[in-house]
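Deliverable D5.2: sample structural annotation.
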Amino acid sequence: MERRSFLKRVGVGLAASLAYTAFAQAAPQVRWRLVSSYPKSLDTLFGGAEDLAKRVAELTEGRFQIRVYQAGEIVPGGQVLDAVQGGTVEAGHTYGPFYVGKNPALAFDGGVPFGMTYRQHNAWMLFGGGLELLRQVYADFGVIQFPGGNTGARWGAGSARRSRPLGTSRASGCASPAWAGW
């Protein structure tokens, strides 16, 4: 009895293995284009998209290829969301607060000055319901958002004017992309 049971299990395992191999060989090749809001010269940011593409190719044994394009190769860096939404490309690598003019809630897809630290933001996204809320916002654009890193809030102000003692000139404003469209 045990011998028959053993042979039956080996037969089922062998059949499953052959079926998996046949399925893997028949799986179609998938090729996507991913546009980034960043140039190749910003290797820390642009490199994240390249690392993603490499990892996907490794995990799928080359059956899912993602080709990464820098800002300006297909669309300007500020039009990545539009390109994905319109079907020009299959994927995008950008920063949600660049698009606060489309929906102010997108500011919370990145660091907001005087807001949460990057650790608090990650906790909100992953454990506090933030990802679900942002996915509802992105659903209005017909895209699905996946967090891909967090550089934290951008602090400081920028101005082309020379700085002067307090009280002698008007403030020049905050140089944060999260507030730029508000």
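Annotation notes: Helices lie at 2-26, 43-59, 80-85, 118-127, 130-139, 177-180. Confidence is low (pLDDT under 50) at residues 178-182.
The annotation will be released with the project's public dataset once the embargo ends.
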